[in-house]
Amino acid sequence: MPILETLYSASRRTSNQIYMLLIILLILSQDSSFNASIHKMILPGVPWYKEHLLHQTSLGSLMVIILIRTVQYNLSKLRDVYLHTTCLATLANMAPHVHRLSAYASQRLVSLFYMLSRKYNKLVELRDDKLQTKAISTGDGLVEDMSAELQIYTDFLRIVLEILNAILTYALPRNPEVVYAIMHRQEVFQPFKSHPRFAELLENIYNVLDFFNSRMDAQRMDGEWSVEKVLLFIINNCRSWRGEGMKMFTQLHFSYEQESHPEEFFIPYVWQLVLSRCGFSFNADAITLFPIGMHANKEIYYDEMNTNQNGELNEQRVQFDP
């Protein structure tokens, strides 16, 4: 809870603090027993969360909400690829073990796909505009940068679809709110139905949509479908769900790998904390371990993001283990 509360106030934290907290959550999410137990712990309330009333919410649902909120904050403020990667990697590790995800967390998860898809579509439009106007050689580098960023967001969207697939494949009967959120916002997936990187993953999502939509169309209702009626309908039909036609994909598993010389970052960072909070007086002119008044160089902390020949996410600090 203190970690999640600190991430909630990310705007008042340094980038290094955010990175370290996210890495802790990533390491915890590598443990399947941790992923299962956080959904069994019910919080009576979360008073520091102001955007929405969280009553009787599981710790797992809160963790999903905060990670997605961190991605949203990063999109608008920091725009750091590594931060996106770590948040999505943690969510992917958690996905197969999700149990009774709350309505708000489920809505935020589908909204995450929509949020990233808007950024993706904007990049596509900008790149295509540059290509159509036959930008001069000085602009070619800009087109290449856009294409590289577009590839990164393609990977992000695919990971979100993998997260949704893992929940639907391994835990659908236990997560009616996720089904409701996907049905409620099913139009956000339509533009990507024929995308070569997303088509196979969206087949599973539309298999679920077809299952519930067809049964809903066949059921006569007195009056309009209310939220409560739709959710009750989903809960009842989850019992007859057998997963026919669902393609089984290898579960994503991300792990944190410490670099060969982590002390290059951590020792200066810890001593910075000592200097700023211990209350003792030091001769600042005599300190040579780190630059005074500056944060530890983020370049030391992570390697540059790149993609492999298959276009998959490849980042040395967050590793994909098939």
From TrEMBL:
Pfam families (UniProt xref): Dymeclin
Classification via InterPro entries: Dymeclin
Keyword set, alphabetical order: Lipoprotein, Myristate
One GO CC term on file: Golgi apparatus
One record GO biological process: Golgi organization
Protein family: Belongs to the dymeclin family.
Alphabetized PANTHER family for the sequence: DYMECLIN
Protein name as catalogued: Dymeclin
Taxonomic placement: Eukaryota, Viridiplantae, Streptophyta, Embryophyta, Tracheophyta
